[in-house]
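Q: What structure does this chain adopt?
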Amino acid sequence: MTGIDAPVVIVGAGPVGLATALVLGRHGVRSVIFEQYGGINPHPRAHVVNTRSMELFRTWGIADAVRADAVDPAWAGTILWKQTLAGEPLGRIDVGEGPEDQLLRRLHASAEQLTSCAQDRVQQHLLDAVLTQGMADVRYSTTVVEVTDHGNLVDVTVEGVGGRQVLRTCYAVAADGATGGMRDRLGIATDGSPVLGHQLNIYFHADLSPWTRQDPPC
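A:
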């Protein structure tokens, strides 16, 4: 068993894990983040960054960088349903439509606004901030296989390039996502609706402007 030079272990280097490390560091608390994958997942995944998150990002100094990587607000404000990219819309939502007083209240509520920035880019900016801060050690390709709570201490069993080892620290934060498995192993239940279905996302790069230039939100 080995002690680590940080009172907090964070399981998962996604947005929640990185944000946790960043905030802890701002309060002078060191942490170690363990991430089972070798780096940031390049798939865009979630993209909506709400107003409150953007306010936090401004506090942490990364709001401008996130905005620079975001989708043009004119595109992000429209949602279309189509059978094909070049086909007729089956449905359309324009976020900017609605009673003028409600729109003005939303605009004046904060200096920040809802932003559409892919999760992989948001994570990169969070990671850069964590590394620049220098208060967290981020260890990729390392899986947390077990967490044992002893009351005032926590044993964290990890498996990585150097094999399996047990690390002793003060606190462990499960930030490995809803399907990460750590929550189930710790007996932490979830509330809400059960799984309603499964989707398959296909991510590719292509110039589709000949078919979409008339309606950029496509």
